[in-house]
Design goal:
- Two copies of one chain form a homodimer.
- Chain A is an alpha+beta fold.
- Chain A has a single domain (3-112), classed as Arc Repressor Mutant, subunit A.
- Chain A contains seven helices and five strands; from the N terminus they run H-E-E-H-H-E-H-H-E-E-H-H.
- Chain A has helices at residues 2-5, 15-23, 28-34, 42-48, 54-66, 89-92, 95-112, and strands at residues 8-9, 12-13, 40-41, 70-75, 82-87.
- The first copy, chain A, has a three-stranded antiparallel β-sheet with strand order 3-5-4. The first copy, chain A, has a two-stranded antiparallel sheet with strand order 1-2.
- In chain A, a hairpin with a 2-residue loop joins strand 1 and strand 2.
- The longest helix of chain A has 18 residues, at 95-112.
- Chains A and B meet through helix 2, helix 3 and helix 7 of A and helix 1, helix 2 and helix 6 of B.
- Chain A binds a DNA duplex through residues 26, 41-43, 46, 53-59, 74, 79-83.
Amino acid sequence: MDALKTSTRHGEICPLDTTLKVLDGKWKSIILCRLMNQELRYSELLKSLSGCTRRMLSLQLSQLEHDQIIQKEIDTSFTPIKTSYHLTELGKSLIPIIIGMDQWGEMYIETLS
Amino acid sequence: MDALKTSTRHGEICPLDTTLKVLDGKWKSIILCRLMNQELRYSELLKSLSGCTRRMLSLQLSQLEHDQIIQKEIDTSFTPIKTSYHLTELGKSLIPIIIGMDQWGEMYIETLS
DNA sequence: CGGGATCCCCCCAGATACTG
DNA sequence: CAGTATCTGGGGGGATCCCG
């Protein structure tokens, strides 16, 4: 697994870096937020991420899919093609982390203001 | 889930993004790991981060200090100058998050291997 | 509709040298 | 020892066009 290789410091594996790498990317965290309680289509995600280009959405989604955090489903029985994305079990296991970080961010913002 | 209501990208504050921004940076997470149980000097940090340049260490440290995650202490009573870095209370409050992400990374690596 | 391929620009990080 | 200043290139990401 390549994520494992890049997460070493002086030969040791650093799981924290693995996590940060999985979440790293301008749009990944918010994509996970969007998919937390529902599955969404490519165009729905795009609309909900103002400022995100199609190129970037494609890249982030393919990385998340490669990391087995989300899963793509393609419905070819109609044209135009419909695709939808949803969290895998691995992705769902990330939710408590996401919530924890969100709550820390809230506390942090309040503390500094 | 309600904690994530504010996680949008339409001009509103996104606490999760705030957290990810604070942690974002090639060396920040591992710097926090290093400072978790001890304070360290600049040169000690540099030695423990193989591959990190002095320039990058300086940048990451100044960002963490600006974000009030770590605190620098300068001892000018001797030459050469001695500086040391340690976590602030805000930085310490990040530890559970770090540990959570580290544990998730461990599980993730094991699951995929 | 849901992407991929290509071009191109700008910024980030490495290398190197200098300093209090 | 603990940084800063400057130069430079390589790559990430935007814009645009194309395709099944």
